[in-house]
Amino acid sequence: MTGIAGFGRRHAGFLVFAVVVMTIPAYLGDAYYLSVLAFMGTRFMMALGLSLLLGQAGQISLGQAAFVGIGAYGAAILTTRLGLDPWLAMGVAAILAAGIAGLVGMPTLKLRGHYLAMATLGVNEIVYILLVQLKDLTRGTDGITGIPGLSIGGIDFTGPKAYHLLVWGIGLLMLRFSLNLSHSRVGRSLRALRRSEPAAASLGVDTAYRKVQIFMIAAVFASIAGSLDAYYVRFISPESYTITFSIILVTGVIIGGLGTIWGALWGTLAIVILPEILKRFNDDVTNLVFGVLLIAIMVLWQGRTRGLRGWLASVVRRMGPDRTTSNEGEE
Amino acid sequence: MSFDQFLQYVFSGITSGSIYALTALGFTLVYNATDIINFAQGQLVMLGGMMAITFHRLGFPLWACFIGAVVTVIVVSVSFEQVAIRPLMKKGVLAQIIATVGAAFALETAAMIIWGRDSLALPAFSGETPIAVRGATVVPQTLWVVGLTLVMVVALQIFYRKSLFGKAVRACAVNPTAARLQGISYRRVVLFSFALSGAISAAAGVMITPISFMGYSTGALLGLKGFAAATLGGLGNPVGAVLGGLMLGILEALGVGLVSAGYKDAIAFVILLLVLFLRPAGLLGARVVSRQ
Q1: What are the DSSP E strand ranges found in A10-83?
Q2: What's the ipTM?
Q3: In this structure, which of A127, A293, B28, B81 has its CB flanked by the most CB atoms within 10 Å?
Q4: Domain around A99
Q5: In A, which residues are within 8 Å of B117 by CB distance?
Q6: How confident is the model at residue A42 (pLDDT cuts 50, 70, 90)?
Q7: pTM for this one?
């Protein structure tokens, strides 16, 4: 995909999406649906970071929920205990998340293989245990209540409409950032290192450094999403930040497709909507379906990384008369 | 901490350490054959314990429960290899690892649906009368755990060192391509590794259930600790796996004694992160780990 046409189309996709998502509050007044959409927005941020890590760097984190938890608890503790400004608290929590990601990523991403997956699983477990055990700070399983909402210069972001705009505004910024990143030198070197690490290294890509960098970005996205959730719901407790949630996020990104940043969006839709549908049959069956889906997608799609949309497109293409699917340039 | 207390903690550490050692061995077997970290390893341990409980409820004697559980888990592990690992052989390790994560998730949720959310118990293999050792006491099940672990580790070593197929498996661990050129069936080795890894995990699960019960989510934690143990000893090194398991068990038990029981589960992961940070090759420095 080169030239002005491709460039235009790429931006058209982003612009259309941005306009659609930002105008939703104009015609959708229902607080419940707006909250669900905002909830989707924060999940989208988490998936976006993970999608960068998985799709671009070929590394897997099974502990994103830990960074979400750091964002949420960082925001909650800093505002309720120290009376910090919510925006500042969100920033401090994000820096903390990035620091921890760097600390975990630096030793593990230097190693050949998939140590990061296990290390992040460990980090998630440690963070969860700390959230439950550090009762003086986190109030244990009772959770923290009375978290303040966000506002800026008189604009209050605690209502569903304003919050929707805030969340998706930030979500769109992150999406733009991710798209730009994947088209930049960094993105190209990441894709190169996913294809062949020795080849990328021999061309001067500092593979370990790049991977750590992406992992830290993913942690920051997750942390900000966690803070935003906490400021909206006003209550947090440790159960939201388990390994189970981390794996659900991974499932989302895989369903959405690894090869494209947009996959994070489709994946988010899947992990928000699918449980709602499955709940009608059986509450417990959701994670079983996710688990089986992970295996099935891997086996059936056989490394084709276009995800749900790509798969649907190929089905449509096979059925319909010479339909040309739009080229997904957003790698 | 008095000496008696110390001894008591060490005994309990050796017991759970044996289970970590076996789980770590399970990781090692699959890792050596395929380079895959099997994220469902802990769930196989859980499945072993749960199946033994089910067989026991059906009225089978304990030894039959043990065998039944091991056979079931072998079947599950082998089926998983056939369905998800073999077709992904050429797709790279990441796809296979994601498949194992899916298997872990599916097994855990299935277990929750089948056996419920409560932890379940299994009677000890030979009674509950504690045996006094100096100032500490040991339940007979501990001796079973340690004894059977020892038997399995020795048997495994003999198999790998002396038998032709064992040597073939080791050859594949060193260099799959070269092994294939020698006429060794790589696929059979992988299949066998999954079977053996499942068997060992199941045995571990059955043995530990009378001591610490088994719940649907126990496996995830055991899996993580087994991996921490394998990494501590040196991922890919069976002797390291056993050593790492025992060390982890003892450190954890002493940690409970010195710090607090609430942080018991965090100790393993702190050790895991420390090892990855300071000495990623582990104590026995496996050759498989390489810096870029």
Answers
A1: none
A2: 0.83
A3: B28
A4: 21-242
A5: none
A6: very high
A7: 0.86
